Amino acid sequence: MQKKRMSDYDISLMLTLISIPVWLPTLFVWSFLPIELVPQFINFFVLWLPVIWQMVSCFFAIRYIRQNPDKQKKGAGCLAIVLWVYMIDAFLSLIATGITYNTWHIK
């Protein structure tokens, strides 16, 4: 029995719908690590991981629209959802970065 290959539409929506539920518990566990223990670039990577995740999801949504011109309405709806969650993820990452690192003193 062969597995059915997921379409780009399904991959994009799956990545979008699980980005925040996966990231929040990860961030909660990550917050218990001392900031001196982990290098700063790894901290930033974990904080901005859902934004990178959403960039990949946008790629799959755009690729679906390009490969299926007859289903552009379905692809455009998916892209709208992806971009909406992308903005939410970026805002949450920005807040988490501001909470983790006091950047007010940098001019």
Write a short abstract of this structure:
By secondary structure, the chain is mostly helical. It has helices at residues 8-30, 40-47, 49-67, 72-100.
Structure explained in plain terms:
This protein is mainly α. It has one domain. The chain is 74% helix and 0% strand. The chain is built from 4 helices and no strands. It has helices spanning 8-30, 40-47, 49-67, 72-100. Helix 1 (8-30) packs antiparallel against helix 3, helix 1 runs parallel beside helix 4 (72-100) and helix 3 (49-67) runs antiparallel to helix 4 (72-100). The longest helix is centred in the C-terminal third of the chain and has 29 residues, at 72-100. The model has no long low-confidence stretch (mean pLDDT 83).
Distance between the termini: 61 Å
Query: Largest sheet, if any?
Result: none
Count of discrete alpha- or pi-helical segments spanning 4 or more residues: 4
What level of helicity do the residues show? over 70%
The radius of gyration is 17 Å
How are helices and strands ordered from N to C?
HHHH
| Shape summary | elongated
Class from helix and strand fractions: mainly alpha
Mean pLDDT: 83
Tally of structural domains? 1
In total, the number of strands is 0
Strand content: under 5%
